[in-house]
Amino acid sequence: MPRLAFLALFAAGCSAGVPAPVPVPVVAAPSDPPRPQVENPQYTQWAAFPPGTAVTHKSVTAEAGHPAVTTTTTTYKLVEVAADGLTVEMTARTVRYDGTVTDNPPERFRNPKWVTAPPARPLAAQDQGEETVTAAGKSYSTKWSKTKIQSEAGEMLGQVWTADGMPGQIVKSVVRIPAIGKTTTIEVVAVVRP
Asked: How many domains does the structure of the chain reveal?
């Protein structure tokens, strides 16, 4: 049951005809119940692989009616695995549609093994299934799911293919925004296992 807090309203000054302060009840917001600790998906997606394991994704963004595309090549490398977490290093190179090249310096991300469960439920899949997908010259038994959400640019349609045998689990993803004719496709192009 929420606790009641009282706020006293005081009139400025003391003069005849000014009513005495009246306590006004204010209901305090109920506190959220504590959320449990859960295993971090970013930890479990990498923990089964030895340090030195790396996966490279190629992302291509195209717009309908435009021949030029923007391509980003991102490599994720497992640097360290410990009982309480792991570290993944990311490097990326982007070649924009106009030919501009950007090489981002390596960034390291620490993923703890345990995290507090999120307050909201994950986005529900609109459709799901299983499919064999070839990535970096190898076939993977994947699970795929489709989602549809509203964005500022209009309806966004996504499909992602994941496999337990893939470092980071993502084998492929496609996101389309029909209202602006934009499609981004991400595919694994290399996997290195030491």
From this structure: 1
